[in-house]
Write a structure and sequence with these properties.
The protein is α+β, with helices and mostly antiparallel strands. The chain has 5 helices and 7 strands. 31% of the residues lie in helices and 11% in strands. The strands form 3 sheets. Strands 1-2-3 form a 3-stranded antiparallel beta sheet, covered by helices on one side. α2 packs parallel to α3. The N and C termini lie far apart (49 Å). Bound molecules: thiamine diphosphate (TPP).
Length: 213
């Protein structure tokens, strides 16, 4: 149990990831560990800036709520991936399966910096990115199991999560394929005159792909 601004959170570490967030939190009331994005201007993302230090370096401090929010996202992803690995070992999940363990902080930090209008295109190692973006763990796990209730009706599997609603444009199995897709989305936003972003993520393996260069 931890107290934050009069709200009580319950974090249960040994039960497979039961997290009961307080009312008002973006995860509140989501029994299936569903996540919904909060806007940049929400109190959770408020940055508390300290004055510049004597050495001229600007110190930035985040609120306790922000740290808890990051922790919760990372914890949620880690628990999901531990379950995924277990099911993969039991051959309940077939085909390719690339987990996001060790990269949770990237998804958590990125999500809090983006608005829900911003888009993401990424590679096949994407379960954590999708979860942080707002896809429910239920629909993601169903997708891994090839079920019709999965985020792409069980037809994509581990590498091809997608959600137009959450502006999550894959989940791409071809190394570097997400780069022209993300660039196209960004240009579309530019032509429409919005200030929306498209974050395009890729590993070092894609850094020398023709589409990148
Ligand atoms: C065009 C293409 N070439 C080769 C492959 C085979 N392949 C699958 S994963 C991978 C390595 C990619 O590394 P990186 O982009 O750094 O991602 P990581 O798995 O390390 O997260 C390769 C070469 C592929 N999927 N697509």
């Amino acid at each position: 149990m931890t107290e934050l601004q009069g709200m009580t959170w319950r974090l249960t570490f040994d039960s497979g990831g039961e997290i009961i967030p307080p009312a008002g939190n973006r995860f509140a009331g989501k029994a299936d560990m569903n996540v919904s994005l909060h806007h940049k201007s929400s109190a959770m993302t408020q940055v508390l800036s300290k004055p510049t230090s004597s050495k001229g370096k600007k110190n930035t401090e985040y609120s306790k709520a922000m740290y808890l929010d990051w922790f919760e996202t990372m914890f949620r992803i880690r628990k999901f991936e531990e379950r995924t690995l277990m099911a993969y070992g039991q051959q309940k999940i077939r085909g390719f399966c690339h987990v996001y363990i060790g990269q949770e902080a990237i998804a958590a930090g990125m999500t809090s910096a983006l608005r829900k209008e911003d888009a993401i295109a990424t590679a096949y190692r994407q379960h954590g990115t999708a979860i942080s973006r707002g896809l429910s763990t239920k629909e993601c796990m169903a997708e891994l199991f090839g079920k019709a209730t999965g985020c792409v009706k069980g037809k994509g599997g581990s590498m091809h999560f997608f959600s137009r609603e959450h502006k999550f444009f894959g989940g791409n199995g071809i190394v570097g394929a997400q780069i022209p897709i993300g660039t196209g989305i960004a240009f579309a936003e530019k032509y429409k005159g919005t200030d929306n972003l498209c974050v395009t993520m890729f590993g070092d393996g894609a850094a020398r792909q023709g589409s990148t260069l």
